[in-house]
């Protein structure tokens, strides 16, 4: 099947490589486009993968809805209004959004959720590192991890510098941008006497490309709805 790739940056190119390597699936790349251009493929793709820029969302959703093409979104940095547009589009087409397509991050989400329940009185900090060219900070994955923790604890994220002690109901979120880090996320649970660290390191963006391609193959067979990466392993109905 044809997979339309939107975005010709590092991730777009890596997804194109992985797509062509999937010998057990009849995948063929149609075209790779910048989100600032009008979407135009040699033929209508069976599914699209978007790793471009938030500014191109309207054109992408318009094309996807007009041609009824399932859409996998890996772009981060969306506003609340844009997320609402994505949710609305999911009423008529299958849409899978994930800030991180790593299986390891998916498991990390489960681990920190359980830890936050079991260690209810422990303080929590989050540290994330990425390459210096990453535009958004904190990362979409960091935001997702915070949301996971907030689902079981009343926590207020603290992103800015402060001259006050950290309060128990706060979670400090620290973003580092330097060198060529593909991605590193660590959640610390701490008391005065001990620390538990849950950490994930990505050594190559290939893991994200493989996850996105696997998600696209799966999504092409789904009905309209809003999906997450977890649904590949724990199937459910579209929401």
Automatic annotation (TrEMBL):
Pathway: Amino-acid biosynthesis; L-lysine biosynthesis via DAP pathway; (S)-tetrahydrodipicolinate from L-aspartate: step 4/4. Its EC number is 1.17.1.8. The active site is at 130 (proton donor/acceptor), 134 (proton donor). It catalyses: (S)-2,3,4,5-tetrahydrodipicolinate + NAD(+) + H2O = (2S,4S)-4-hydroxy-2,3,4,5-tetrahydrodipicolinate + NADH + H(+); (S)-2,3,4,5-tetrahydrodipicolinate + NADP(+) + H2O = (2S,4S)-4-hydroxy-2,3,4,5-tetrahydrodipicolinate + NADPH + H(+). One of its GO terms (cellular component) is cytosol. Keywords: Amino-acid biosynthesis, Cytoplasm, Diaminopimelate biosynthesis, Lysine biosynthesis, NAD, NADP, Oxidoreductase. One of its GO terms (molecular function) is oxidoreductase activity, acting on CH or CH2 groups, NAD or NADP as acceptor. It is found in: Cytoplasm. Its main location: cytoplasm. (S)-2,3,4,5-tetrahydrodipicolinate binds at residues 131, 140-141. InterPro entries: DapB_C (IPR022663), DapB_N (IPR000846), DapB_N_CS (IPR022664), DHDPR_bac (IPR023940), NAD(P)-bd_dom_sf (IPR036291). GO terms for biological process: diaminopimelate biosynthetic process; lysine biosynthetic process via diaminopimelate. CDD domains: DHDPR_N. It holds the Pfam family DapB_N. Homotetramer. HAMAP family: DapB. This is 4-hydroxy-tetrahydrodipicolinate reductase. The gene is dapB.
